[in-house]
Fold each of these.
Amino acid sequence: MKVGLIDVDSHNFPNLCLMKISAYHKNRGDHVEWWNGLKHYDIVYKSRIFDDTYTNEVDYCINADEVIKGGTGYDLQNKLPDEIEHQYPDYDLYRGGANRAYGFLTRGCPRHCTFCIVSEKEGNTHTVADLSEFWRGQKEIMVMDSNITASKDCEKHFDSLIASGAWINFEGGLDIRFLTDKGADQLNKMRTSMIHFAWDNYEFDTFDKLKRFRPMLNKDDRDIRVYVLTNFSTTLEQDLERIYKLKETGYDPFVMVYDKPNAPQIVRDLQRWCNNKWIFRACERFENYKGGRECLKNC
């Protein structure tokens, strides 16, 4: 069979589903390549992770006997068959894949946040694989789980990441509200360049945990980042309060904008001020930042 692959998002971040599909077909002896509009294929797979907010899909005339679409960018119900889901990914599909592994140890999240589709799509956190399913000695491991700390197997998974000796990147961040003392100690034993938490809503049980665990985490302030969700359910004053409190407590705040294409200019300026660390460290208050001053005058 001749198989074509289309990464609809094309955001220069490897598509795990396509890597597994490629491995599955290559193991069957099929020919797999990136789709070429001048060729005919037996099957073409189109994978799309993001919706119209981030990805503008172009409709091509695809010359194939069968076209299969999948990914959350199309709908939340489609899933890979088990025989493909548990394939060791074809890292050769993307440039530089030999030194980095991608995968999920757990799926799901118990939070049911209204701005996130994970709970609806995957349910509560549950283990789906062990590390050997997608890692074979690569120097870096991208852990793509949405809420690994909510898993009853979290400490077991953390032990396997420590034992790997690889650099660990928690792509989806960590939920500090589920973190335990042992989990904090395990994070200290991992090779991580940066740890990500989140303070999404204006409520202080999250901040209480952030404040409690900060002395336990042996990381420089610049190496523990906290995502701050804006333009969703908070005011500018609440956004600034969270940013200032995080900085005072020894974290690196990082503004995430919900529905960024339609966000007001002041939120965009807030993001630029906070996330450009040269500006953020040189100008400690948003009201002293030129873009902030101009926007606050017009509010």
Amino acid sequence: MRQAGRSLPEYFPIRGEGTILDAISHPDRAAEITLQPVRRYGVDAAILFSDIVTPVWASGFGIDITPGLGPECERPFTSADDLSRLRPLDPSTDLWFQAETIKTLVAELDVPLIGFAGAPFTLAAYLVEGRPSRDHAKVKSLMISQPDLWHQLCDRLAGMAVDTLTAQVEAGASVVQLFDSWAGALHPDHYRAYVRPHSERILAAMADLGVPTIHFGINTSELLDQFAEAGADVVGVDWRTSLVTARQRTGDRVALQGNLDPALILAPWDSVAAEVRRVLADNNGHPGHIFNLGHGVLPQTNPETLERVVALVHEEGNADGPSIGAPAGV
């Protein structure tokens, strides 16, 4: 789930100075960082080394990633005048480095490559708030008080996501994931009215390309039914919701991805192994499961523990049935 490589000692020398966007925009570096966890852990898929704000950054809106904090905008989105700062994306020029990275990876990998993009609500949260937020007060206020402007903003961000993911698939990505990380902050009615249509548009465009899609958010237990209806093939589940409950809420319409709490991997191995087995038992042999973390790997995670997690899932997960998935990117 996201970049497993950031817990690896070999990650930091090649990551280099500057923000993560500097490394992302250099194809050789981005490709090597993508490959590192695949070599180390033996996972069943690679996930592109990138960030959800990359297309907005490349378009020149004025966003950067501050180390230790996250995405920040010098001039947040506040009015209709700011729509002009979200110009249409031209992936061939704006994201040329991403296509080059993917082509390099496809030539070297013997496992599928997962591309990804940010969903409109989560990207809008950063653009409107100007930085990571605990309460998302500004973006929620804009959403319900200026619905026309809100939908124009999301329409532009959805277009960016479609263009980004299409370019990734054309370059060789075989699966795509749509991250709506902060959608769990919304009431289900607000998600349905203000957010879901834009995610549906993105997922429908990917379905037309014929690639499998994954839809993920954090703390989205009350939204899982809508995530399953929005058009993805797989719905990510964080550690707060059991797989049993998630299957009930998604109505067995989709496969599930998840959902070991990444914080638990810091515990001694016996405790970690018990938690891995608990997730596998929770799945109970269901054929539609990609074992994964419930969110990103913590930087302080011991790589040797992750290696043992992958080995355990390969050994005991597959023993439950041939269609039980092993970690996709962990």
Amino acid sequence: MQALHQKLLREVAQGSEPALGDLYQLFKDRVYNTAISYLQNTADAAEVTQDVFVKIFQSASRFEGKSSVSTWIYRITVNHSLDLLNHKQRQKRFGFVVRLFQHETGAPSIELPHFDHPGVILENKENARILFQAIDALPTQQKTAFILSFVEELPRKEVADVMELSLKAVESLLQRAKANLRSSLENIYPDRRK
């Protein structure tokens, strides 16, 4: 499969839109699922997915092959997701200005849509929402390690490659993430403590 990915990426680097379409078909779900795990907003995840494939098209010629194509695409996805999150957090800091203008114009306040991860079955939607809220509160590195390991189910070695960290550092991040999540979820469900 890696050989096919590299072949498609070489063709994309030469400007082949059909090859980009093939790469898109192979990776669109993984990119979208990773983005929505960070952003918890379907419109934002769709925007990041589109941006990732634009970035792939623009930078395919600079792919050096030091990692697998899938690792490279995950890295781009994580970076774009984090960039959008940071942008949204900066906007929130200046939210009072927006509210002032909305008050004057009578425009409605923007509310976040209900978030449903596409990989979660219907019966578990409410628990998944609570879990993803807890994941969202994790520090960035812990969140990335947790999402790539347990939501996207990547092998730890690939998580380390995507994050450009050692395997030991990823394991440490995952231990801290699990401890933080356990603590957060125990506060929500105190009767489930063991």
Amino acid sequence: MSTSTSPVIGIIGGSGLYQIDGLKDVEWREVGSPFGEPSDALCFGTLEGHRVVFLPRHGRGHRLAPTDINFRANIDALKRSGVTDLLSLSAVGGLREEYPPGTFVVVDQFIDRTFAREKSFFGTGLVAHVSMAKPVCSRLGDAVVSACEGLGVVVRRGGTYLAMEGPQFSSAAESHMYRSWGCDVIGMTNMPEAKLAREAELCYATVAMVTDFDCWHPDHDAVTVDQVVSVLLGNAGKAKGLVKNVVPLLGAHAGPCAQGCHKALEHAIITAPTAWDAGMVEKLSAVAGRVLRR
């Protein structure tokens, strides 16, 4: 892992975003992880002089369904690659009239309804509990909003992301229930991604890019696949502009995270050091090495 104190910006691209425009010194590199295979090779490069590591969440060509993504390997590989700040881009459905297709939502809360995914790096032999009360880094969120406004992209600050298992979309009853819970957007990929980023002590924020209204909306059935794809591609184009604008803002940051994302594990490990499993300690060398060295 890099020991540099300058930020290294990680970008996880969602549906429609499989590369970043404007990267220089590009190198696609396989990064191994003790948690298995990441979604794809990682793309290393520089943008406006700042180091960037890009990972297409579904793999190039969109090979992986949400449930099949190895989220632990993805976050571990990014951490091993020196990433300090992680921006996640995701296609979502809108659960509010005021979040129409084409809107970017910088969410600040999640409700996790996934059930078939590994959700923690820790486990038997090395148990830890991190706080998810404030699951995203406000500094990254501020930078995203500023970058969006500079592009004229419609952006909403704050909102709750409902993470569902998929791959099927919601029933109408589920969609109305999620609205009654106060959820604003719905997607399939930001959990357990956000939880794992917190365990890895990464500053993390997500941009939820609305492609369509979910099936609660009375006009939902009139929307064609072509229309959704058109919005998806338009969002991907705007996302590339966002990345170009936000990387210099994030790269200019100096010093530790004011929110404390970089020390999320400070008091999280519950297992007594004398009972630590050696295999787990080795496996967690990148994610938790800072607090496991003794």
